[in-house]
Amino acid sequence: MSYAAFKMMHWATGIENCASGFITHSPAELAAQISPIQAVDLESEWPAKKRIGPIPNVVVTAANVLELYTVRVHEEDGRSSQLSSEPRNGGVMDGLSGAHLELVCHYRLHGNIESMVILSSGGDERSKRRDSILLSFQDAKITVLEYDDAAHELRTSSMHCFEGPDWHYLKRGRESFSRGPTMKIDPVGRCVGALVYDLQMVIMKAAQAGQGLAVDDEPSNMGASASVRIESSYIINLRDLDMMHVKDFTFIHGYIEPVMVILQEKEPTWAGRITWKHHTCMISALSISTTLKQHPLIWSAANLPHDAYKLLPVPSPIGGVLVICANSIHYHSQSVSCSLGLNSFCAQLENSLDMTKSNFTVELDAANATWLSHDVAMFSSKTGELLLLTLVNDGRVVQRLDLMKSKASVLTSGITTVGCSFFFLGSRLGDSLLVQYSSGTSLSTSVHAKEEAADVDSDAPLAKKLRRMSSDSLQDYTSGEELSLFSTTSNSSESTQKSFTFAVRDSLINVGPLKDFAYGLRINADLNATGISKQSNYELVCASGHGKNGAICVMQHSVRPDLITEVELPGCKGIWTVYHKSSRGHAVDALKPSKEDDEFHAYLIISLESRTMVLETADDLGEVTERVDYYVQGTTIAAGNLFGRRRVVQIFARGARILDGSYMTQELPFGVHNSDHNSSPDSCTVSSASIADPYVLLKMVDGSIQLLIGDLSTCTVSIYVPSILANSTDSVSACTLYIDKGPDSWLRRASTDAWLSSGIAETIDGNDGSYHEQGDIYCLLCYESGTLDIYDVPNFKCVFSCDKFVSGKSHLVDRSVREPFKPYQKIKSKTNKESTDLGRKETTEKMKVVELVMQRWSGPYCRPFLFAVLNDGTMLCYQAYLYEGLDSYSKNEEVVSPNNSVDPSSISASRFRNLRFIRVPTDFTAREEPSNMVIQPKITVFKNIAGYQGLFLSGSRPAWFMVCRERLRVHPQLCDGSIAAFTVLHNVNCNHGFIYVTLQGFLKICQLPSAFNYDNYWAVRKIPLRGTPHQLTYCAEKNLYSIILSFPVARPINQVLSSMLDQDIGQMERENTSSDDLQKTYTLDDFEVRLLEPEKSGGNWDTRATIPMQPCENALTVRMVTLFNSATKENEAIMAIGTAYVQGEDVAARGRILLLSIGKNGENSQNLVTEVYSKELKGAISAVASLQGHLLIASGPKITLHKWTGSELTGVAFYDTPLYVVSLNIVKNFILLGDIHKSIYFLNWKEQGAQLSLLAKDFGSLDCYATEFLIDGSTLSLVVSDDQKNIQIFYYAPKMVESWKGQKLLSRAEFHAGAHVTKFLRLQMLPTSDRMSATLGSDKTNRFALLFSTLDGSIGCVAPLDELTFRRLQTLQRKLVDSVPHVCGLNPRSFRQFRSNGKAHHPGPDNIVDCELLSQYEMLPLENQLEIANQIGTTRAQILSNLTDYSLSTSFL
């Protein structure tokens, strides 16, 4: 394995930074939309409704992922009908029944985001300017992003880099820094401060309106509100101001010029010197003059505690700053100061005033805070408590600080207030929550306080979608008694106290930090599966989270449906389910739109090769083919409902039938009435059909189209051939109908004269209101030439037209609009222009769209998606958006498409000039092999399968596309190979389920596994543990997981001391400690090993057994090992636990090895686990493994090999390792061990001499996280990940000169993964196709990939590549670095370079390709793909086949 590829399969979910700001809209734009609603509310007795005001966007970052959300609120009166039938959690508050986050855009950057701030103009609700996002990256890069309406995405407005030779002097000779750049912002948006290289302060001045570094090419920004930009920057060296150790800085409110307060430690202290040196911090306030570049000191405060770590600026009108320390909070302003002690550890200065103490103890290290109002701050502590800090003031002067407990919630990594009624708790350790809050005075307690007091918990049914136990709920702090969020012992007047009520409105799932995982069998596994479909038998069971957010995450990459029943059914071509509604009156119909979802299907129509079967879907599926008037003599092309589900339409090759239940009411043969056109039989044979009540669009075999128009009064249809297409030469390759449903037709807003384009809808509305749900209908046609046209139905006026749709451009714009942006500049290749043109001709000609679907799912703010499948299996996904450009460039002359030369009058002014589409990346390859083109991929839209909506793509690589918060989530389905047909089924026995037919000829009726949440990169299910999971292992024979858990327990100090120390020392200590010290408690972790059994029904997992550890004993490792019992001469599967006693530095380290055998499941759980051996050893036992039937134990700085006699372990060999072993891996008789500081060692075991001998080691110093062997055919490599987020691959080559006669491991590749890799798992790569394995030879069947998990919640894999593929992809990668515009202007090559953090490192070879960058190739327009492929001397098909093969061979789980 000389070459490898790195690929992420599940991206980071642990949120590190969150912020809110008006990114996609300015407050003024929102206020304009809100005002009519508020006008109504003014009369009512709920004045609180008015408070909600404009709500800003929420921006979150996780590792290198940036996501921008909009908060959508649900009005109480059911104006958003989307979830009105389901109970919302949290009740109604301030006139809102709920809210959810909706994705605007998301990006994966080539660099980890260190910090993020929102640059706002600090304006009020009438401000017309938008905010910008500032991101900072290692070492000193800052990017400013703003939202671009025209392209519906973020664009870079300026980039600031303080790296490289010009800026070397800023580092002052240092190579490693304690943290990346941190940024803070002036509250009124005049400037930004960024602290880089620990002591260099960059001041970036914000531009006045209408100026900035970036020059706008297009005039579009005049109409919309412009974003804030950065104008210039300069650097202050804080060392010149005599500042050495800056801990934090911030800008404070209420000054004419920006004032920066810096928290610094004058002379550092440490825990051992606190008695002498404790108040070492100070704050200094500097007035920043950006024009004069001066920064005079205006006030300062010294003698702050040494544990101060954070500054929190107090909003106007109070002003000033809060200094947060671990044990106290201090308020300082230019004139006053006061403080609050939080626990008994807060030190008091001798001459200072008495510090007021809070009436409960809490520690505030690692807390996050935000302001709920101008005088109430909310803190989230390290234990997940929410605390409210009130600044008791008389307008301007703060008299004292008041702290009170509130709810308990998730452990946060950041909090931000979103507008004035929401806050967002971002978490890296649990799910992030969007919470609505409402404040009132305590005298008039809110009506909902009673319900609120129970639990602010996201366990309540937050739409059925989030049906899962959230382990990260906001639990109530006071157990069950009514909650008042103010301290009752307060001596202030009642009226000053504020009470707050909270309601969790939404949560973003997070699976990180993944500390360990096991690869186990699913509950519904099929043990007979082979090949790729066998992967659906497995799932990843991960130990994730921390503290009370600890959980087991069960993760599945591919969906495996729960089978209800299956029947053999060979030769199936398609299946449809239809409803049957008896013709009731219009009035009844109009009253029951909400129940439509629950109506059961009536018939199942199955199209076979030469006939059609009809089944009744009542209590059981019974065939009624003989008794119905359906056309059953041949295959069916399509079937569906017309006329509000009162009729069924069945389309077959030469005609159509309309049926009422089982009786035919009309038959319509094609090609009879229009005999003059009827020259060829192809023009009257249907090849595909699209049904949209009351129309049916037919595409004939020769590429012409016909429309069936339904008449509502008679329930009959008639044929209409659109004249616009009758005389066109270009034949249609794919077509579809699109219904624009809902109370507000979405597409109408796309037209420049919206009131004109509502022609057809008016007539329907007039029809006694029964058809109000109908919406406008449009017809989408894609021609062989690659043009996409949208027509309105039935007039067939062209409302949107776009050339070269087939090439997959990043944006689609109507051709009457001059395209204002060119996202992809042409790659500069003037020299070989002729040759590329020739190469391009042949390939683009063959590309055509074979299937087209446009769909808008239900929901008040949903935008339509457009899906197209090309003939090579590529899937193009677009999402529509509206952009109201300036009239200056949309009123230019109309362009008429050449293929239908129509008089310009028919292209009326009502074109959809404002309609645009943006391409959505799907991380999904559905490419067909050219050989097996038997089965075409087919899109089936579903509205409700187990509460999810989206579409299913059948074909040779079936997949689910689910739409969650306006985001496409793609989940492949591997378990049945190719799928020929799919349809939804909702009846008594199969509630919101589905039916599909496999290519092997099995019809399966299934449901989605309900316990899983599909709004994630992979399907995930969280099982809360309420403790910290550390390690877990899978026992395959018994299907049990054993997991190490720890729980914090508070113990009295004297008990802790006596257990830690020998008796005599204990006596001496006791005399020195005062009696009140002994009353204090100290928090220790209690460890246990738990055996969990996966639950069949999908409930919580059963605990089968618990093995508690002794006091002060930490379990470090648990593994299933196979030992050869020398007495009985057979192998035994045994669970081994390694522990360590943690008793302080005075006691020599000891550990314990425990061997347990797991009995039969049938016996009672008391003796499920029996201890067969236990022994104390010197040193902590940090890793165990089985080596050829022997047990290898790492205890302290030594590894020992033991023989097992059935009752005793006998040592047979040992090897002295340097410091502390973190991981052991074994292949045959080779051992790979990773040391905590000294990199990796490669040993082998010789049975005859009974010795462990060192083969080679890495001589560098490396802090290992995880190690594993990588096997490629007959080649063995050693992989290690380290604390700097790198992955290195070494090999053993004793014959090479540079290996010092084999003592030194040589580097084969190195790569920066960008996350801490905690575990590697070796999995055999899957065969991609028959031709691959035949040509590659037999040695490549023994190929393994490494699946890894990280602390960010991401999962990826490193897999070997053969040299030819590697060279091709590496050349492509180098090309893409320059030819793709990267978000934030980051360079992928610098991101993936090995980071050594200042240590000496000899750079290794660059032998890993980055699939994160290669995946952008498929998102390029077709012309650019061909051009790049041509430039690197290969073809597009070859590149795509390599990428597909790689993703197939690693499609695990």
From TrEMBL:
GO terms for biological process: mRNA processing. InterPro entries: Beta-prop_RSE1/DDB1/CPSF1_1st, Beta-prop_RSE1/DDB1/CPSF1_2nd, RSE1/DDB1/CFT1, RSE1/DDB1/CPSF1_C, WD40/YVTN_repeat-like_dom_sf. Its main location: nucleus. Residues 563-1008 form the RSE1/DDB1/CPSF1 second beta-propeller domain. Keywords: mRNA processing, Nucleus, RNA-binding. Residues 1087-1418 form the RSE1/DDB1/CPSF1 C-terminal domain. It is found in: Nucleus. The keyword RNA-binding applies. GO terms for molecular function: RNA binding. Residues 99-441 form the RSE1/DDB1/CPSF1 first beta-propeller domain. It comes from the Eukaryota. GO terms for cellular component: nucleus. It holds the Pfam family Beta-prop_RSE1_2nd. Belongs to the CPSF1 family. CPSF plays a key role in pre-mRNA 3'-end formation, recognizing the AAUAAA signal sequence and interacting with poly(A)polymerase and other factors to bring about cleavage and poly(A) addition. This subunit is involved in the RNA recognition step of the polyadenylation reaction. This is Cleavage and polyadenylation specificity factor 160 kDa subunit.
